[in-house]
Amino acid sequence: MAKKNVPYDQKYYDPEVECMPREELEKLQLERLKDELVWAYENSAYYKRTWDAAGIDPHIETLDDLVKFPFINKQTERDTQGVGSFFGELCCVPEDDVVFMATSSGSTGVPTMSPFSQHDFDEFMKAESRLFWQTGMRPNDRYLHGMNFALYVGGPCVIGAQELGALGIWVGAVPSDRLLWAMKHYQPTQFWSSPSYAWLLGQKAIEKGYDPKKDFANLRTIIISGEPGGSIPTTRKAIEDIWGASVYDFFGLSDIYGACAGMCEYKDGLHIIEDQILVEIVDPATGLRVPDCEKGEIVYTTLTKRSRPMIRFRSGDIGWVNREKCQCGRTMTRIYISGRKDEMFIVSAVNVFPSDIEYVVRQDSGLSGEYRIRVYDEKFTTKYEVSVERVFGSEESYDEIAKRVENNLKTHTGVRPAKVIVFDTDKLNVSAEHKASRFIDERTSVKDAHAVVEHSKEAAAAKKEGE
């Protein structure tokens, strides 16, 4: 893929696409969707079999015709992976045509492979270049890539920075000492990491005697992704206050691209690469579409991906969309993600997401910003407790902090936690290099429900095998 020469002072990387009138954009989407559906039907064993069984004709007339097609999800990927070929029944090209593969983390099941043909990879890099330009990156920037390269789909995103002409510094997921050394010696202007690690790295820098705002003065932009914190204003502000840099949230998923949506300078939602990906919001229970600006599960359909088209992929993310033109002038739909469907919990009929709790914790100046959530059953009801850390050097009593946090959580979420536990700084032990896990789900009802589902699947498979 050749470098695209764009004038430094040009606001949009690809203005013809990014600012395309809605009517023209939808015509482009329909044209590409028609091709994608036929391609999937003719080249994927899975899509042909399931659509034939459902009596679905892949030839459509309108974008709304997409609702006739069945959903797929992570389990679909796992069930078809390795069946018939290395990449499985969802794949539409021979292995010889695949030039890159990534995998999911496997944190919620068997890791799933994500194949890319050369065409797919080039489209991927176009998306990255556009999103980087959107944050203000230009050819004279030094971009330090602090994301994992080990089979992680976000690894190659650095190439998108190089395609627009920036200097790519391929550091990757290294210990904080090594990363701080690189930042000090190479003085990058842009840096990409996870929200938790960007915050933790700032704390580590201060502990080692650095003044992040002075010692890394060239750093003006931090891109964060991989966790929901980037779209939480208090989390962004906490990171910005440490580094003195502007923070932008990016979103991606291994099933499609390393980053397929990102913030513009107004930071009101994330512009998705809508000329390549169609977005729907559906009711998590019924699967029916919900109106724009109403919350539901986010569903993605690829429009240009050839190696493995994803048709109506239920992501498990809960959020909403805004298709109105942004203040920045872009017409690309903005997505807003509030959390994961499998991490939402209900207390006294109120839906609570970890991001709701993070919002409260990160705006409290008496807390370090770290937290852990424990959800459990007690007397047939769901309870939750939150552990936090008081800021370094604080002499405020644990009881006073706990009471304040309880009240703030009640005000923001609508339900009071069963308990708030306060630790000293660095005693909670949730910080991790590059990604943190702060959600503990001990609900027996959820585990029992999962067990019933798995038992039903095993029983159905045994019955089919017996037949």
The CATH class of the largest domain: Alpha Beta
Radius of gyration: 23 Å
CATH topology of the largest domain: Rossmann fold
Q: Which regions contain 5 or more consecutive residues with pLDDT less than 50?
A: 445-467
Helix content: 25-40%
What is the helix tally?
A: 13
Cα separation of the termini = 52 Å
What best-fitting shape do the alpha-carbon axes yield?
globular
Question: Sheet with the most strands?
Answer: 11 strands, mixed
Q: What's the CATH architecture name of the largest domain?
A: 3-Layer(aba) Sandwich
How confident is the prediction overall: mean pLDDT? 88
Strands, total number: 19
Strand content: 15-25%
Instruction: Give me the CATH superfamily of the largest domain.
Output: ANL, N-terminal domain
Q: Strand order across the biggest sheet?
A: 4-3-5-6-7-8-9-13-12-11-10
Descriptive keywords:
disordered C terminus, 467 residues, GMP Synthetase, Chain A, domain 3, Rossmann fold, alpha/beta, four-stranded mixed β-sheet, eleven-stranded mixed β-sheet, 2 domains
What does this structure look like?
The structure is a single chain. By secondary structure, this protein is an alpha/beta fold. It has two domains: 1-338, 3-Layer(aba) Sandwich (Rossmann fold); 345-447, GMP Synthetase, Chain A, domain 3, CATH 3.30.300. The protein is 33% helix and 24% strand. It has helices at residues 15-18, 22-43, 45-53, 74-80, 118-134, 157-163, 176-186, 195-207, 212-215, 233-243, 354-362, 398-413, 444-466, and strands at residues 98-103, 113-117, 142-145, 167-170, 190-193, 221-224, 246-253, 257-262, 270-272, 277-282, 296-302, 313-322, 334-340, 345-347, 350-352, 367-378, 381-390, 419-423, 439-441. It has an eleven-stranded mixed β-sheet. Strand 3, helix 6 and strand 4 form a beta-alpha-beta unit. The longest helix has 23 residues, at 444-466. The protein is globular and about 70 Å long. Mean pLDDT is 88; it is low at 445-467.
